[in-house]
Amino acid sequence: MSQFKVTKQIDFCYGHRLLNYDGKCKHLHGHNGLIEIEVASDSLDSRGMVVDFGDVKDVVKGWVDEHMDHKMILCKDDPILGLLTDIHEPVYVMDENPTAENIAMHIHRQALKAGLDILETRLWETPSSFAAYSSISGSAGGAGVDRE
Ligand SMILES: [Zn+2]
User: Fold this and answer.
1) pLDDT in tens, 46-66
2) 78: exposed, middle or buried (Cβ count in 10 Å: 0-12, 13-18, 19+)
3) How far apart are CA 106 and CA 133, in angstroms?
4) Which of 24, 32, 133, 137 is buried most deeply by CB count within 10 Å?
5) Catalytic residue at 70?
6) Would you kindly state where each structural domain of the chain is located, as residue ranges?
7) Percent helix, strand, coil in the chain (nearest 5)?
8) What is the dihedral of CA 72, 33, 116, 3, to 10 degrees?
């Protein structure tokens, strides 16, 4: 079976640290992240498109700019959270450990919630490491990521 696929890339900057992890990523640090949003379809719309790249950008970049860009992405259990919020530093709080896998999942779910019928969200944490979250049941999860 043939299928069309398009991918939109979106850049953002974020900080994080991982709990219960014995490595460099247990300390506060930042990344220049690259998001890839993949949309697939068996057929094209009347314009000859799977989806308008601009629509993907508007939805995903809009949400990421507001909620994650230039913010510390932290687990709700991270003890530094109270300190940062006390001094009004911008944070994005998640129930899970803020790994590339979980950040990709949050972005993916927001895009779905906004009505984008996306197949997969990849988060490149470094130029050589990405994690992916996919809508297809059974394939959700990520590629291996070197923590840096
Ligand atoms: Zn990191």
Assistant:
1) 999 999 999 999 999 999 999
2) buried
3) 9
4) 133
5) yes
6) 4-134
7) 25, 30, 40
8) -160
Q: 4-134 in CATH: which number?
A: 3.30.479.10
pTM to 2 decimal places: 0.89
List Cα–Cα distances, 84 to 14, 24, 88, in angstroms.
15, 20, 6
Known active-site residue 27 = no
Order of all β-strands in the sheet with 91-94: 91-94, 71-75, 4-16, 29-41, 120-126, 129-134
Q: Is 25 a catalytic residue?
A: yes
Q: Which of 25, 38, 75, 108 is catalytic?
A: 25
Ligand 1 ion local residues (Cβ < 5 A): 25
